[in-house]
Amino acid sequence: xxxxxxxxxxxxxxxxxxxxxxxxQLPDRDTYITINYNNVSPSLRIWFNKxxxxxxxxxxxxxxxSSVMHYGITAFxxxxxxxxxxxxxxxxxxxxxxxxxxxxxxxxxxxVNLMYQCNHCTNNWPDSQCEDWASxxxxxxNPDFMKVECRRACRECPxxxxxxxxxxxxxxxQMPPTPSTTYMPSPPPSTYMPSTPSTTTTAMPSxxxxxxxxxxxxxxxxxxxxxxxNQWQARGECSANxxxxxxxxxxxxxxCEGGGGGGRCSEPKWRRRRRRKGRRDMQSQSNFxxxxxxxxx
Length: 297
Prior knowledge:
Layout: H1 7-17, E1 33-35, E2 85-87, H2 93-96, H3 106-115, H4 127-135, H5 138-141, H6 143-149, H7 226-234, H8 237-240, H9 242-248, H10 250-253, H11 269-296
Antiparallel strand pairs: 1-2
């Protein structure tokens, strides 16, 4: 498509390729336009013949003057100027325009979707989050939530019109009464939070991860990982859920030592050993320098 100025022509021909017919040839066209056959070049009158409703299914989509499949009002005129298509409502003729200058109309898009049984089944939450929850079995654990908010991830969308999975019609974004053993979202915004509600205003996970981060007992870590714990800490969860956060996100809340959310994290043993060794090395270096100075005095 080197000439973008003729985009409408390309769209028109693609429309034919996927099964669309000319708008001005639809079975109900006589309600909207009149064809002036006297002005049409005789060899091209075939392109103005009307289809019957047995030949063309309009899928309930109404006639549209602005369709990219609609010829211009002087199309195929014997002299190139005379009007071949006359709108019943002459004010609508400006909508017909010229094919080469058009874009897809709403009706063009709608009828193709109906023809091919396209469904716009989407996840209300970010796809990556819905897919992650689905992989954890949440479609079965929390079906009331997941099959509405993550329909696509739970494979609850119609499949090409051959088989359709029944889905719940509830529109609530609240979590279901039965909690999951893994975290699930609270109502939007899009940052996810766990399913098991706490006594405070926000929800936190009911159990630690199935594979907690292994660490030296003296090392301050976040068992749920730095990313999630820091995210929850930034949202005030250290104060809202101090018991849970203090245990599983100690590093983020600063509760490894000292408590109260302001404690210092324990230093890893290897680091303490290295620091002690460094002090000994520095002391030895200092003693050597002092002895050297005494020798040269």
